[in-house]
Amino acid sequence: MRLNQPERNCTMSIAESCTGGLICDRITSVSGSSDYFMGGMVNYSNESKAKHLAVPVDDIKRYRAVSPQVARKMAQGVQKAFNTTFGLSTTGVAGPTG
């Protein structure tokens, strides 16, 4: 995919929960990804989401960690932490007992 000129200056960061860093790994395995990928965090616990991404504890309690509301706050938190154009997040239930 070719990007238009204005999009070439876009940057991104990722907050991962259930994916445990897999998306960051996939992005950084591509040569040149440092041009747009500024970094990521694995925020698996609710405490980490609150402390590092500024997700309000009340939101986690009210909506649960696996919710669109918390995913949105995670994306906003990582975007702010890395000062990027876009912040992305993953949350969900994974594993054999999930």
Describe this structure in words.
The protein has 98 residues and is α/β, with parallel strands linked by helices. It has one domain: Maf protein (Alpha-Beta Complex). The protein is 38% helix and 16% strand. It has 4 helices and 3 strands; from the N terminus they run βαβαααβ. The N and C termini lie far apart (35 Å). The N terminus is likely disordered.
> What's the end-to-end separation, in Å?
35 Å
CATH class assignment: Alpha Beta
Number of helices: 4
Strand order of the largest sheet: 2-1-3
Indicate the overall shape: globular
Quick summary:
The protein is of the alpha/beta class. It is built from 4 helices and 3 strands. The chain is 38% helix and 16% strand.
Protein traits:
single chain, 98 residues, alpha/beta, Maf protein, 3-stranded parallel β-sheet, 4 helices, disordered N terminus
